Amino acid sequence: MNYKVPVIPGDGIGPEIIAEGKKVLEAAADKHGFSLEWIEYSLGAEHYLKTGELVSEETLKELSAYRAIYLGAIGDPRVKPGVLEKGVLLTMRFYLDQYINLRPVKLLEGIWTPLKDKGPKDIDFVVVRENTEDFYIGIGSRARRGKSHADFEVKRTLYNIKFGLDIDSDSEEIGYQIGEVSKEGCQRVIKYAFDLAMKRRRQVASVDKANVLSDIYGFWREVFLDVAKGYPQVKHDFNFVDAITMWFVKNPEWFDVVVAPNMFGDIITDLGAMIQGGLGLAPGANLNPEGTSMFEPIHGSAPKYKGQNKVNPVATIWAGAMLLEHLGQEAAAQDIVAAIERNLFEGRVKTYDLGGSSTTSEVGTEIARLVGSV
Ligand code: IPM
Ligand code: MN
Fold first, then answer.
1. What is the 3-state secondary structure (H, E, C) of 248-262?
2. pLDDT tens figures, 34-84
3. pLDDT for residue 39
4. Which of helix, strand or coil describes residue 25?
5. What ligand 1 atom has the least distance to the C-alpha of 296?
């Protein structure tokens, strides 16, 4: 079996960590008798600065022909914040309708957590972040004093929405942003969370802020309750987003599957990464179960470490394991996670963030070697 996989190393440390990810995935492929053919795409800052193009319709179409994409990181200080993130990363997530952002929060053996008296048994949950709606739809602007009008459009595989906004303001200037969630959009991601819980410890916690943003998140909660009715075997509860940050720290063992709207999911998964040992260890998968999914570390492009062969490649390698699992190579994926665990447990070859002094490529090489012996 040969798999063609588009790979987007991207910006900053992206190329360094992706190189190690490819190394480890190839070792797992060798061991399990399949092969990987990487199709490189040079999206990100260099491409943008050279051509003025973020990502073309043609490239998006091409990408949509594959089942899984491997992504490093997008973002560069030479470009205004948000341009590449929205223009490349979010554009791909939306165009490919990757409505699930799956982020495991799992403390591996041998890793230090800042949470006192908590260990790997206590920190093992998954955040299912909605990935196409909410305050991420990009609808917003600024308006100066007086009357103005703005038109916006949300184009999704699921639906198209047009907003027309008349503004009459006597403030000097305002900035505003509209969040939107749809019934279909909430249903599909919440359903995914319940299905996942059926395969785990049968518990789903929902995240919202229905006490204040009641139109948008009250609606989310209503859909959540409705979906929950179809899963009487699964325990469910609600958490306000502010409160759940507290519980993640105090009682992480309470959680099995956590389902959250896009923005809250973004925020709480950085906290999740920290309790599992740091951003260098946290993988993520942008899933479209019926289409093209994309696998990436949850951290950014860390431009200050670019080219130093210094950062931790584990998050990217782990994301690669999720990619192989998605392609149906479960045994290879398990071997990679086992090799990561072995490497971290032995603690000989580790990067600076874990208190070591090994390089990015030494860690990749060591995990690739361990894949052969787990
Ligand atoms: C993430 C990142 C992105 C997000 C940024 C880079 C647009 O923070 O994947 O969590 O907000 O989704
Ligand atoms: Mn984030």
1. HHHCHHHCCEEEECH
2. 999 999 999 999 999 999 999 999 999 999 999 999 999 999 999 999 999
3. 98
4. helix
5. 9
Q: What is the pLDDT of residues 188-221, one digit of tens each?
A: 999 999 999 999 999 999 999 999 999 999 999 9
Query: pTM, whole model, 2 decimals?
Result: 0.97
CA distance 132 to 93: 7
Is 61 marked active-site? Answer: no
The DSSP line for 158-207 is: S-EEEEEEEEEEEEEEEEEEEEE--HHHHHHHHHHHHHHHHTTTSEEEEE
Instruction: For residue 278, report the distance from its CA to the centre of ligand 1, in Å.
Output: 16
User: What's the CA-to-centroid distance between 297 and ligand 2, angstroms?
Assistant: 10
48/245 Cα distance (integer angstroms): 37
Mean pLDDT calculated for residue range 132-140: 97
Q: What distance in Å separates the CA atoms of residue 28 and residue 342, rounded to the nearest whole number?
A: 15
* Mean pLDDT within 154-161: 96
**Contact predicate 8/72, CB 8 Å:** yes
Residue whose CA lies nearest to ligand 1 atom number 8: 266
Query: Concatenated DSSP letters for 275-294?
Result: HTT-GGG-EEEEE-TTS-EE
Domains and CATH numbers, the chain: 1-101+282-374 (3.40.718.10), 112-133+182-275 (3.40.50), 138-180 (no CATH)
**pLDDT interval class at 236 (50, 70, 90):** very high
